[in-house]
Amino acid sequence: MPALLQFELVSPERLLRSGEVHMVVVPGTEGDFGVLAGHAPFMSTIREGELAIYATEGAAPERMRISGGFAEVNERGLTILAEHAEPVTAH
Amino acid sequence: MATLKELKLRIASVKSTQKITKAKQMVAAAKLRRAQQAAEAARPYAERLEAVVASLAARVGASASAPRLLAGTGRSDAHLLIVMAADRGLCGAFNANIVKAARQHADRLIAEGRSVKFLTVGRKARSGLLRTHADRLLDHHDTSAVRNIGFAEAEAVAARVLDLFERGAFDVATLFFSRFRSALVQQPTAVQLIPVALAPEAAGAAGGAVVDYEPDEEAILAELLPRNVKVQIFKGLLENVAGEQGASMTAMDNATRNAGDLITRLTIEFNRSRQAAITKELIEIISGAEAL
User: Fold this and answer.
1) Quick one: B151 and B229 in the same domain?
2) Fewest Cβ atoms nearer than 10 Å: which of A13, A51, A60, B83?
3) 3-state secondary structure of A79
4) Cβ <8 Å between B214 and A28
């Protein structure tokens, strides 16, 4: 069992998600990128798009629409600060 | 001495005032809880953003290419004071304290020969400054129609501030609001918004690790700084809402208690004069009977 990624999604109004997940795919300004546990320190701005959160390997992703903000990966995990974030419902 | 009827009416009037202040106090207490939760929920975002901006700023440093929001315009001649207060009164000295702090700051700057402009948020901020600094009021953001202050309000205010900055209307922006300490204590606070004033300890915390940036540091910083302005304003708004409710609760509690004291005093006075009237009547009857 590989290590899990500590993931936090924060909007100005509240902390939306906090917990351990398998992988998160983030819509970066220069392209989507996936973050797994043990990712190198990294920082990127994000564009408006869909964030996919994979709770476990192979599981169906939970999608969130986010815009305006940035993602930071450090030794503690992934933190996404998004100005607007809401779950995608229509699928 | 007031007549019995007058006293009775006054007691009734104070009683109904007490009912109103009591109700306002309970409303404020309920709203305070919600406002406090909102202020607490907003904290993680602001803290993280501040840490990131600080570490980036430390990297980019004071190079010539640093964004103007960070480095400033190099002058400090024109000042913009953003004064945030509530829309309503009935909250003790809450609004007056904020306005007073802003006015003192402004007067000091004016005495130094710098130009000062105000941007007010909330009705009481405007009316408080209108008396002394009417000619310096640049703009007003009205929040009286908004029920729950959200991030959209902060975005609107920040957009105005950033627009003014880009047009070169000011060099330094300072934000005035009330920091929420507890329901009893609200502290008028001034925070320098532009150029960004950073806490030195925040910069050290994130340093060390080699971090990849995408796009480069400066591009990220240029995007984050306006965001930081928004978040600072948002934080100020939320603290203000919580502070207003706290102050309102305290003020209404005092008013309720004061009304209670007043009722006790008036009731004693009422009973005394009633007694005196009865005694007087008895004396009249007795002395009348004795005279026969």
Assistant:
1) yes
2) A60
3) strand
4) yes
| Angstrom distance (rounded) from CA B131 to CA B63 | 43
Euclidean distance between CA atoms B148 and B230, whole angstroms? 17
Quick check: is B70 in a domain? yes
Give the integer Cα–Cα distance in Å for B130 and B135. Answer: 8
- Beta bridge pairs of residue A72: A43, A79
pLDDT of residue B40: 86
Residue B26 included in any domain: no
Residue B109 lies in domain: 35-248
CATH of domain A5-87: 2.60.15.10
B214 and B240 assigned to the same domain: yes
Helix axes B217-291, B151-166, angle to 10 degrees: 120
Across the strands, what pairs with A34?
A: A25
Does residue B284 surpass a pLDDT of 90?
A: yes
Q: Which of B41, B19, B3 is closest to B234 using CA atoms?
A: B41
pLDDT at residue B114 greater than cutoff 80: yes
CATH code of B139's domain: 3.40.1380.10
Chain B CA closest to residue A16? B41
Residue B35: list chain A partners with CB under 8 A: none
CB contacts of B223 in chain A (<8 Å) are 45, 70
- Residue B277's pLDDT band (cuts 50, 70, 90): very high
Query: Which candidate in A7, A8, A15, A39 is best for mutational testing of the B interface (most B CBs within 10 A)?
Result: A15
- Residue of B163, B96, B84, B78 whose CA lies nearest to B122: B84
**pLDDT tens, position by position, B68-106:** 777 777 778 889 999 999 888 888 889 999 999 999 999
Size of interface A-B (CB pairs under 8 A): 74
Q: What is the mean pLDDT of chain B?
A: 86
Q: ipTM score here?
A: 0.78
Which of B138, B147, B154 has its CA nearest to residue B236? B154
Q: Look at chain B and report how many structural domains it folds into.
A: 2
B168: closest CA of chain A, how far (Å): 25
B190 touches chain A (CB under 8 A): no
